[in-house]
Amino acid sequence: MSAGVRRAGAGLLAGIALAAHAQEFKFDASEFDRQPFELGGYVEAKGEAFKVRQDSVFGRLTAPALTAREHLERATGTLELVGKMRQDALTFDWRARGAASADAIATETATRVFEADFAYRVSDGVSLNAGKRVVRWGKGYAWNPVGFVERPKDPNDPQLSREGFVMATGDFVKTGVGPFAALGLTGVVLPTSEDVNSSFGQGPHVNPAVKLYGLVADTDIDLMWLGKGSRPGRIGFDFSRNLAGNLEVHGEWARISDFQQRVVDATGVISTRRFDATSWLLGLRYLTEREVTWIVEYYRNGTGYSDGELESFLRFADTALATAPPGTFSPLVDRAASLALTGYAAPNPGRDYLYVRASAKEPGDILYLTPAVTAIVNLQDGSYSLTPEVVYTGFTNWELRGRIVFLHGARYTEFGERPNDRRVELYARLYF
Amino acid sequence: MRIVLPLLALLAAAAAAPAHALDGAKLLAQVDRNLEPESYEMYRKLINIEPDGAKKEFVLYSVKKGRDKVVALFLSPASDKGRATLRDGDNMWLYIPNVGRPVRITSLQSVTGGVFNNADILRIDYTAEYDVQSAEEQPDAYLLGLKAKTGEVAYDRLKMWVDKKLVTPTKIEAFAASGLFVKTLYFKDVKDFGGGIHRPATVETDSPLYKGYRSVMLFSQIKRRVLPDEVFTLSYLPKVEDLRK
Fold this sequence. Notes:
The structure holds two protein chains of two kinds.
Chain A: H1 3-24, E1 37-52, H2 57-62, H3 64-67, E2 71-87, E3 90-103, E4 107-123, E5 126-133, E6 165-177, E7 180-189, E8 208-216, E9 219-226, E10 234-244, E11 247-264, E12 270-287, E13 292-300, H4 307-323, H5 331-344, E14 352-360, E15 369-378, E16 384-392, E17 398-408, E18 420-431
Antiparallel strand pairs in A: 1-2, 1-18, 2-3, 3-4, 4-5, 5-6, 6-7, 7-8, 8-9, 9-10, 10-11, 11-12, 12-13, 13-14, 14-15, 15-16, 16-17, 17-18
Helix pairs in contact in A: 4-5
Chain B: H1 4-16, H2 24-35, E1 40-49, E2 55-65, E3 69-76, E4 84-88, E5 91-95, E6 102-105, H3 118-121, H4 126-129, E7 130-137, E8 141-148, E9 157-163, E10 169-175, E11 181-194, E12 197-207, E13 210-224
Antiparallel strand pairs in B: 1-2, 1-13, 2-3, 3-4, 4-5, 5-6, 7-8, 8-9, 9-10, 10-11, 11-12, 12-13
């Protein structure tokens, strides 16, 4: 090959490389012009395998068909749609979910509208909303004792979308007010009746709530209030602050007035107590040099049961179940099931918890891979759940997650009496 | 003689000083303004490129006000659409529509994965974060040595090479407080954005911490726009999309 041909070849290659470079890095922002209507969401396929604890009290009480088996496999398909419409200062946002699941015990379908909310922007600092919406308060990652007007979080999956309540809200924000870099006020009215927001509590009530927000000295501070109505009245505050570029601390405190709770002893005698309950949470988020993010939270659940109270309930329910023929219900079992529904079987019904999560960003230079381990410990009875997981988001618009939830504890403890020893979960989610 | 002696002293002092003493702080302020107006809106595309050539792209809409308030909204891909990040000085928050409330994040984390971190995506004026420690004139560039004003800043030290004619960066090397070399940013493809904005339209970055990986940031529609302060607050994060015309 002559030098001239080689030079021409090299020139051609350089030209191709330049053209490829120009092609590779093309960007025309007009492709992303705002649209008056938007529709998005995701479709998800999930598979779960449960290793059943056949002798568990919670399992026999709340899911007797499950505890008749050693294993259960379940397949679930979910479609979540999210839409937005705009007309000048008015927007309408909605979110709806449909899911179908099948296992050896049952096939179920469910559709729910999670949000359907009109928003009117009066000005840059004032907006009004009306409809079904999710209003989330608090700084905690796993729990939010100051989440006065929302459904409780699943600490095992805190980022899961949740259903809202029908409400009207007004938001006002102003910057540079005295020592406050920003000051905000949110007013909420959450009406309840037989047909509206019945899961929030009994009606008819207006259920007014207020949140005052301030950013002062680089610290987020919120003060909250919920008036007495469908739920007991309560006040609270939260804060969050970065102590360093890799360390954030946060906390919440809530005081519930005249809280009413049913408690049962090991013989089945039920008593009702009324008290002012105080719940609080203290947590931190810390990023190490190796890019491992630690989230640690201590949660004092003032409306929870002590380890002794939980054990008494579980012993009573165990005795009641032992006296009833398998698969049948007796008055004692009915009583235990009713108590389970009103608190004892709720997620994290205890009084003291520790949440620890460590997630590593892209270990081994594998982009978009996030392995994590989460532990939730009931500090009073020593039982815990341990969840190793891995999430991969490397394919555009796909999220793949696999995790195993191990539950461990002695007899008559919270996690020791859950219906499963372990649960394997895999899902693939495609956003569009 | 009483006049001649001071004159001679002045001449000697002038001879000892460089012909043009370089004012590093002034130069850095000029770099800031030449890259973007103090208050602006713009669109960016982030491309993460893996060693095998696989790519993942993100498109963001950003607005900035003053020296240290900036908001970025993800427009694409669908899995990230609606995420919004706010920076007010050293404070940073991330809003994820599913989570439904803003959470504090740190400047060192990355909301996109890849070589760019939050501080790159929510960059504020260099003069807001750095002091000029050294400034020297090289044959084809000015070289600035920058030191972070506080420990909150993502990179403790920067070496910035500045184009003499455009007074915009051509290359930046970033170092951690430990002295660890973190990444290099290359500024390329100078383009006229209109409105007197004439600057590189592409920023590429690679890092010894991510061997074989690189990330590219492309700029489009940089425009001067002054927005109310209320836009740069937590309650506005779910509504940033409304700012787009």
